[in-house]
Amino acid sequence: MPLAALLARALVVSLLAPLTPATRGLIGAPELALLRPEAILVSTARGELVDEDALGAALMARRLAGAGLDVRATEPPARPDPLA
């Protein structure tokens, strides 16, 4: 099943992938827009897989129920941090 179809159906998306050229930026604004409003994104993968600005915007707009990130693209995160 294509990623877009999976994202549109998922209630929980869990990222466990390594950082490679193919996975960098895997979840950005277009992918987040496909998620259901009750969906939750969990990433225990490398921080660069998720566009944190797009994720923050989606959360602030309540286009997704929540997110849990184990690793961030920049550690420690910059301040102010929309994901804090």
TrEMBL record:
Question: What InterPro entries does the entry give?
Answer: D-iso_2-hydroxyacid_DH_PdxB, D-isomer_DH_NAD-bd, NAD(P)-bd_dom_sf
GO MF term set: NAD binding; phosphoglycerate dehydrogenase activity
Q: Where is the signal peptide?
A: 1-17
Domain D-isomer specific 2-hydroxyacid dehydrogenase NAD-binding, chain residue ranges per copy: 3-83
Question: Which EC main class describes this enzyme?
Answer: oxidoreductase
The protein's UniProt keywords, in alphabetical order, are: NAD, Oxidoreductase, Signal
Its EC number(s): 1.1.1.95
Q: Does the keyword Signal apply?
A: yes
> Which domain of life, per UniProt?
Bacteria
* Similarity annotation: Belongs to the D-isomer specific 2-hydroxyacid dehydrogenase family.
Query: Per its record, how is this protein called by name?
Result: D-3-phosphoglycerate dehydrogenase
Task: Please tell me the species this chain comes from.
Answer: uncultured Thermoleophilia bacterium
